[in-house]
């Protein structure tokens, strides 16, 4: 290392490190070897002193190497760019006590100079726990209350690192250092408690440290030493603090007490200590969570048992009326549910949303919990606020085994929710085939529509659930049933674009069912064209569906396909449609104009060619110059008048009476409305 040529021939830093060289090993390990050999050897001392000679040929290069390769930097210590530490700092960093003495006595280097990490030699020696170096630095006048720019003092750093002998020495030098916090309000005892350094905590308490001090973290926790020790499971520290009368119920900024924290992290031994110290086990944090409810969510059986044995209220609820048995049922902790039932828990208590324990367990799929609750006599008929009973909840989530269990104990499968959906309806809509089979086997009524007129068969068709639909049709589901918009299963399947479902429905449909119109006058062909489902469109036309039927607004399937830029649908419909200059809807927009408005060059070319063959004038209207084209989006709302996309977050209007009837801002300006002009409209403002 002391040969300059070794450094000259080697790249000092490669991505902040020197890789794969003997020099790298020598630079990082020499001090270790010197300590193992004879550190008092004159030859070794001479070599070390020569290395720390700031005027020598090696110092600057080795210092750069050490800075680049030292991974011991403390998180939270800010850097001071452009400030260079003295050799005393580096000797202290490596624990070279004799070198520290030499540099101070012989070279007269400053003892308290702060380097680019904001640390002095004393600070780094305290961090590393080099007691002899700390003694030497203090002997020669090092400032024991020096701080980094983040407010870390020697005793703070030593306390966090758990160096009890260093802490003891610092306390002898300056007792007032105990009460100096860093910038975040962390005291030495706060650090030591968090890290579980019981001997350091004992020393600090004996010197008068404030055991109820709190930090002032930016997130506002304001944690006390006892809360931190309880959080991290440091039993011995908790004992020390409690023996010194630490406030056992002191909450942090969010209402978390030591008992809350111990419960959250599953520290049963600490919970016993806190209870023995008269901790309030029923207190809640700002979210309404008590130690008991936290243990319930986490499934900590022994902690729940401990809390109940110490008079925790088995039926008390949080701010949202979740009782212990409701929480445990939701989380699927069967053993805890069994314990709570044995302790007299109210198994039919509901939370703010009306969910009872058995309903939440049914929704979450916890069959063992449901077995316990039904054996204890839980009421399976109580609905939540949405009208869902346990069998509806289980059906919605596809839990067929739970549905079977509930049916076996007498569940009514035909109870509707507040929207009129029964268990078979929601299972059909969500494609839970096994649940649908089970419900049909137990006489589920598939003919009852919901409040919008939709039945299980329309929901299955709308969502493209082929196997469920087959099952419903085998059970004689009404293929011609209509919802409040007059939509049949074929309408909804055509709009949804499911080729297989449309194919199946066509097998069951009569000829007049193919061209049936909804309340706006739209056929399955129209809806397939509007949404750009070219394969469905071809399938319908092959079944002799008419491409010419216009809707209430005098729009044809071709017109809506052009408006929405569906090139393939236009290619299918254009040869089947006779175009004249009078082909227009109530908005006064002709097919040619909408071809330009679509902004789709391929569609414009198709319409231009066809218009020439039909001897129709083809030119862009001055009214259409600057037209703002809206790209079709299958996932967005669409205007029920012009069929164009209503971009997510844009302004539009919704009829307060009609079922799901929206119009875009342009159609509103043109005066277009729903079928009943007396209906009131609600403006849905866009998001800026």
CATH topology of the domain at 630-688: Wheat Germ Agglutinin (Isolectin 2), domain 1
Radius of gyration: 39 Å
Shape, please? elongated
Distance between the termini: 65 Å
Low-confidence stretches: 12-20, 583-589
Q: Helicity, in percent?
A: 40-55%
Per DSSP, the total helix count is: 38
Gist of the model:
This protein has 688 residues and is mainly alpha-helical. It has 38 helices and five strands.
Structural write-up:
It comes from Penicillium argentinense. Keywords: ANK repeat, Metal-binding, Repeat, Zinc, Zinc-finger. This is Ankyrin repeat domain-containing protein 52. A hairpin with a 6-residue loop joins strand 1 and strand 2. A 3-stranded antiparallel sheet has the order 4-3-5. The protein has 688 residues and is mostly helical. It has a domain at 630-688: Wheat Germ Agglutinin (Isolectin 2), domain 1 (2-Layer Sandwich). The longest helix has 15 residues, at 22-36. It has 38 helices and 5 strands.
Which descriptors would you attach to this protein?
single chain, 688 residues, mainly alpha, Wheat Germ Agglutinin (Isolectin 2), domain 1, three-stranded antiparallel sheet, two-stranded antiparallel sheet, 38 helices, 5 strands
Indicate the topology.
Blueprint: H1 4-8, H2 22-36, H3 42-51, H4 59-69, H5 87-93, H6 97-105, H7 121-128, H8 131-139, H9 154-161, H10 164-173, H11 188-195, H12 198-206, H13 225-232, H14 235-243, H15 258-264, H16 268-276, H17 291-298, H18 301-309, H19 324-331, H20 334-342, H21 357-364, H22 367-375, H23 390-397, H24 400-408, H25 423-429, H26 433-441, H27 456-462, H28 466-474, H29 489-496, H30 499-508, H31 511-514, H32 524-531, H33 534-542, H34 557-563, H35 567-573, H36 591-598, H37 601-613, E1 637-638, E2 645-646, E3 652-655, E4 662-664, H38 665-670, E5 681-684
């Amino acid at each position: 290392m002391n040969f300059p040529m070794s450094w000259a021939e080697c790249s000092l830093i490669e991505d902040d490190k020197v890789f794969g060289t003997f020099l790298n090993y020598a630079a990082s390990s020499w001090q270790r070897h010197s300590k193992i050999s004879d550190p008092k050897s004159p030859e070794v001392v001479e070599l070390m002193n020569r290395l720390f000679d700031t005027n020598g040929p090696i110092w600057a290069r080795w210092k750069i190497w050490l800075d680049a390769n030292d991974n011991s930097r403390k998180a939270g210590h800010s850097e001071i760019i452009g400030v260079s530490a003295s050799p005393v700092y580096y000797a202290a960093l490596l624990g070279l006590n004799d070198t520290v003495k030499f540099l101070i006595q012989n070279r007269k280097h400053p003892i308290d100079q702060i380097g680019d990490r904001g640390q002095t030699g004393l600070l780094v020696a305290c961090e590393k726990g080099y007691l002899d170096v700390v003694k030497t630095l203090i002997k020669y006048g090092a400032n024991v209350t020096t701080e980094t720019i983040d407010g870390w003092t020697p005793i703070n750093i030593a306390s966090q690192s758990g160096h009890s002998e260093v802490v003891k020495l610092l306390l002898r030098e300056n007792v007032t250092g105990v009460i100096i916090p860093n910038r975040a309000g962390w005291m030495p005892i706060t650090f030591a408690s968090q890290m579980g350094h019981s001997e350091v905590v004992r020393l600090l308490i004996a010197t008068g440290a404030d055991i109820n001090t709190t930090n002032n973290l930016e997130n506002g926790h304001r944690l006390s030493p006892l809360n931190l020790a309880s959080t991290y499971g440091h039993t011995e520290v908790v004992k020390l603090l409690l023996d010194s009368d630490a406030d056992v119920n002191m909450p942090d900024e969010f209402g978390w007490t030591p008992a809350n924290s111990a419960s959250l992290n599953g520290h049963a031994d600490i919970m016993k200590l806190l209870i023995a110290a008269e901790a309030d086990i029923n207190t809640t944090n700002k979210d309404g969570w008590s130690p008991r409810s936290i243990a319930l969510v986490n499934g900590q059986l022994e902690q729940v048992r401990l809390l109940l044995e110490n008079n925790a209220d088995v039926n008390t609820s949080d701010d949202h009326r979740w009782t212990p048995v409701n929480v445990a049922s939701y989380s699927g902790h069967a053993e805890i549910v069994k314990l709570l039932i044995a302790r007299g828990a109210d198994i039919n208590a509901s939370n703010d949303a009306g969910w009872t324990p058995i309903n939440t367990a049914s929704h979450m799929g916890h069959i063992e919990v449901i077995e316990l609750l039904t054996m204890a006599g839980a009421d399976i008929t109580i609905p939540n606020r949405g009208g869902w009973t346990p069998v509806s909840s289980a059906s919605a989530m596809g839990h067929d085994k739970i549905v079977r269990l509930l049916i076996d104990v007498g569940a009514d499968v035909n109870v509707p929710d507040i929207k009129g959906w029964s268990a078979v309806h929601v299972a059909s809509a969500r494609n839970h085939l096994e649940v649908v089979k089970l419900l049909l086997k137990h006489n589920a009524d598939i003919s009852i529509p919901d409040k919008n007129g939709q039945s299980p068969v329309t929901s299955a068709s709308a969502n493209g659930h082929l196997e469920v639909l087959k099952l419903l049709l085998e059970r004689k589901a009404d293929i011609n049933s209509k919802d409040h918009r007059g939509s049949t299963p074929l309408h909804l399947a055509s709009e949804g674009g499911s080729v297989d479902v449309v194919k199946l429905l066509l097998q069951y449909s009569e000829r007049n069912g193919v061209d049936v119109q909804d309340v706006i006058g739209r056929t399955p062909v129209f809806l397939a064209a509007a949404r750009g489902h070219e394969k469905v469109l071809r399938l319908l036309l092959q079944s002799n569906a008419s491409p010419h039927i216009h809707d209430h607004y005098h729009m044809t399937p071709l017109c809506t396909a052009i408006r929405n830029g569906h090139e393939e649908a236009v290619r299918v419909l254009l040869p089947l449609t006779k175009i004249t200059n009078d082909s227009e809807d109530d908005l006064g927009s002709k097919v040619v104009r909408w071809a330009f408005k679509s902004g789709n060059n391929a569609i414009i070319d198709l319409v231009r060619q066809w218009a020439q063959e039909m001897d129709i004038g083809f030119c862009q209207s001055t009214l259409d110059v600057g037209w703002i084209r809206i790209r079709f989006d299958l996932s967005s709302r669409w205007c029920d008048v012009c069929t164009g996309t209503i971009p997510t977050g844009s302004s539009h209007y919704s009829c307060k009476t009609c079922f799901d009837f929206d119009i875009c801002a342009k159609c509103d300006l043109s005066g277009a409305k729903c079928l009943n002009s007396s209906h009131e409209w609600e403006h849905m403002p866009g998001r800026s």
